[in-house]
Design goal:
The protein is of the alpha/beta class and 200 residues long. The chain has seven helices and six strands; from the N terminus they run αβαβαβαβααβαβ. The longest helix has 21 residues. The radius of gyration is 17 Å and the shape is globular.
Length: 200
């Protein structure tokens, strides 16, 4: 897409303006870091447009305050851009599930999806970040077909970005934008641990 121009203009009866304002579903997947970071970058653009932002984190601990959360919450309170809501679904279990059973986590994920589904139906937000949402889909905790159908039939102009590894093929097939983060080089290859300002 040189200079932001599509290679092909579809014969779909839509005007350029209608096509440009069509809501999208984006999926950021792959084994490398940067998936959530890219989604939050899009959320910053949406905030600048005055859109309502809803962030729903499915993996990161409820006690873990990431830099993007602090920044977006603060921006949401300035009254300059759009409002921001940030929700952590369940207790958080990340890579090490120390609290509760798998069924507890699965139920939390299902409750989180039910809340998002309700908000989509009510057009609560203009821009959603479903951070690490591919994991409950991959593990079968949330029904992929229900998610695909809900996103396909969502009303209005609601944009949705989903992040995480192992995105199910049905989700990828239904998305308007799919980006895969793949590793070329990473500091951890040389034994370096995560650091402030880079990983959080």
């Amino acid at each position: 897409m040189p200079q932001g121009k599509p290679a092909v203009v579809p014969d779909d009866g839509l005007t350029t303006r209608q096509r440009r304002n069509r809501p999208i579903v984006a999926v950021h997947t792959g084994p490398m870091k940067g998936k959530s970071t890219a989604a939050f970058g899009m959320a910053l653009r949406a905030w600048n447009q005055g859109w309502s932002i809803g962030v729903f984190q499915f993996v990161k601990s409820a006690k873990w305050r990431v830099g993007e959360e602090n920044a977006l919450r603060t921006l949401g309170e300035t009254g300059q851009g759009g409002p921001v809501e940030w929700h952590k679904m369940g207790e958080g279990w990340s890579w090490s599930r120390k609290k509760g059973t798998d069924e507890d986590h699965a139920e939390n994920a299902r409750e989180g999806w039910a809340e998002i589904k309700r908000r989509l139906g009510e057009q609560t937000h203009d821009f959603y970040v479903l951070d690490e949402f591919t994991y409950p889909l991959h593990w079968g905790w949330v029904d992929v077909d229900d998610v695909v159908e809900t996103l396909r039939n969502r009303p209005g102009r609601q944009h949705v970005v989903i992040t995480g590894r192992n995105a199910p093929q049905a989700l990828l097939d239904s998305a308007d934008l799919v980006a895969e983060m793949s590793k070329v080089t990473h500091p951890m290859d040389a034994g370096q641990k995560g650091q402030r300002g880079i990983e959080w």
